[in-house]
From TrEMBL:
Pfam families: Peripla_BP_2
Source organism: Rhizobium loti (Mesorhizobium loti)
Identification of the protein by name: Hemin ABC transporter substrate-binding protein
Gene3D superfamilies the record matches: Nitrogenase molybdenum iron protein domain
Top-rank taxon: Bacteria
Amino acid sequence: MGCFSRIVAGPMVGLALAFTALQPADAAEGVSVFSDPSKIAAIGGSITEIVYALGEEKHLVARDSTSRYPKAVLDLPDVGYMRALSPEGVLSVNPTGILALQGSGPKEAVDVLKKTSIPFIEVPEHYSREGILEKVRIIGKALGADAKAEVLARDLDDRLTSAEKQTASIKERKRVLFVLSVQGGKILAAGSETAADGMVRLAGGVNAVEGFSGYKQMSDEAIITARPDVILMMSNAGPPVSDDELFGNPSVASTPAGAARKLIRIDGAYLLGFGPRTADAIHDLAVSLYGGQVTD
C-alpha cells in the first residue's frame, strides 16, 4: 500500500550490501515487457490484484506481505513487506522478472535488485482514476497481455467514473481526518499526495488537514483547527486503537467528529490499494460519509 511511503524506512542488512558487489554492472532495469514472464515476483498489493484481475496469475511465483487479496494469493511464498525488502528474500524464489510498485524499498535493496540480470519493472503509483488505469496497462504490457489489460482498463474506467459521480450533487462536503496511527497520544495523519487523500477526494470528501504532504504527527492545536466531521482509519493496521482511546484524546474530542464519535474503519488494502476494487471502495466510503445522499 502507498500510504506508508513517507514514514517507513529500514536499514539494509549487511549480507545484502555484500551481495551488491556480486552483481553484473549492466542492470536489467528499464524494460517494459518481460522476455520470460513464467516466474514473476509481485511487490505491492495492487499489482498482485491486477495480475489476478487480468487472469494472468499463472505467472506469479511470489508476493509481498501487502498482497493479501484475492485469498488464493496467500498460497504464494511471501518475500517480505514491500518497504522493508531484502534482495535475498526476493531472489530466493528464482524469479524471471520482478514487478514492483513505486515506493518499494528500502532504496538500497531496490538498487541491488535493479543491478541483477533479472528484469525489474517499476509500476508508477498515482492516487487517481488515471493512475489505476496506467497501472493496469503497464502490468498487462509487462506480461504480454495488452488486449486483456485494455478490456480491464475500459471496465475500470467506467466503474470509477460512475463511482466518482455518486457524490456530485452533494453540497456540504464532509471534512475527513485520516488517522494512520495513535502513538503516545499523538495523531499521525494524512496530508496531500497520499492514498488516503486521494480516496477521500474521490468519495466526495475534503481532507481536513492541509499544508503538508505525506504523513505527519499533528499538534493538538492543528487537530482542533482541522475541524474534522469524520475520522477515517484502517481496520487492520498497526497496534489496534479503540474508539475510547481515540475519542479520549482531548484534541480529537474537541472536534465535530469527536463530539459525534464519528469514526469509519475500512480494510487498508481495500481502501488504499488503488486497484481493481477501488470503485467499490469509493462507493463504500461515500455511503459511510453521506448515507442516502449517495446516488447510483
